[in-house]
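Structure, all two chains, one model.
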Amino acid sequence: MIGGKDTAQDKLVVEGVSKWFRTPRASVQALDAMNLRVAEGEFVCLVGPSGCGKTTLLDIMAGLTRPDEGRVLTDGQLVEGPGRHRLVMFQESALFPWLTVFGNVMFGLNRKPELSKAERRDIAESHLRLVGLEKFRKSFVHELSGGMKQRVALARSLAPDPQVLLMDEPFGALDAITREQLYQDLQQICRERKKTIVFVTHNVREAVCLGDRVFILSPSPGRIREEFRITLPRPRDINSPELAAIAQRITQALKVYLVAARDAAA
Amino acid sequence: MKRALVIVGFFAVLVAIWQAATMSGRWSPVLLPPPIAVADYLWESLRDGTLIDAALVTLRRLLIGYAIGIVIGLPLGLAVSTSQYLEDTVGALALGLQTLPSVCWVPLALLWFGQTEAAMLFVVVMGTVWSVVLATSAGARTIPPIYARAARTMGSEGLDKWTRVILPASLPFVVSGMKQGWAFAWRSLMAAEIFVTILTGFGLGHLLQYGRELSAMDQVIGVMVAIVLIGLIADKLLFSPWERFVHRRWGTGLI
């Protein structure tokens, strides 16, 4: 099954990844033999309740955490640590308060020695324009609204041109109206730039709205349970009835696994 | 404008109370000289240079000792924040020594270094370094781990991560630690100068002590005023810009 040819074609491969968290009292299994293949340019969403190990899996893909078993490959290369080809956009705003908006977007660019100073500035400017915040380049982080912060975070993670973008519930803390605007923006950006994206969320509709494929995860320990291919035309509207119908089907499937997991625990 | 008037008015009232107290005749002018006598002393000692020279000697010791204290304290504080072992050992040591009034270092410094500049510097460094260590390690420990994780995914590791992420992220703590370190350094140096005569330099503390020996109360109060003023100016010059920086960027302290 782990054919060399397949592995080479896929942008990101997760193979049999398991992870335990050890505390002095107990050892808790967070992930159980997870397998995932993401093709280049694909938008994959992982949906599950809290405690299903979504964030842990994302950290392992980013190279921030090491798996206890299994491995992660990008372009057939073993992931051994964080790398600029795989950037993470985090749950809450991880923007740096000591830098301006512009300084934040420049942070990743400044760590790419192959770029000249002028190129870095140009790239940062164009990404601020992309998220519609060019007027706020000199603002400080605390002066921005929640939605603006996550736009800056998006610009910051896109600017260094990563091949894979890992998104950890990036819109979770935003209000519904802001979120819907960002779904539109993100879909448009994805169409223009063809990024490979793994998007983690507990919001099924969000996943259906954004993903080419949606995987459902069940908790304790985290397992990938089922895969849904979403063929709705883009751009998708999160309020459309077709989308809602698919989301309902996925939610139903998710509930079955949740009940099973609860019964197993009881 | 209104604020300036309030400030001037406040100090004018203080001086007026002082003047009234000296005029009441209840206290001997030897013990409580009138404000004008203190002003006279300050003016004369500024003109003949004794006050300026003493202030320069003191400030030189303070700045050098303080700089050494920060150069040692900042990296040590960051190191302490990374490891539980260092926290349990160096951290505990820092906490213990920080509670030790820094004037307690004076006898030890005298025995080790004799009546030299080195003894003075040693006391200042000991006054500075521990509070800087504690504040820096507390600061580096309380920064959200998400900053370090975000930095690592963007290719910032090792020294770059420490200087460009951890250190700036702990700036709010570091600034207050440096301010506290400055206050301790200033106090310990004054104590050392009052206790110890050092022939290589005649500082403000010595000037104060000689005022006592000569029973020159105008000199004693005058030097105290000078010490307070220097402390205020140093605070405005050294720390206010950093505090403003932190408040502006973090959005703290806004009412």
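Chain B has one domain: 33-249.
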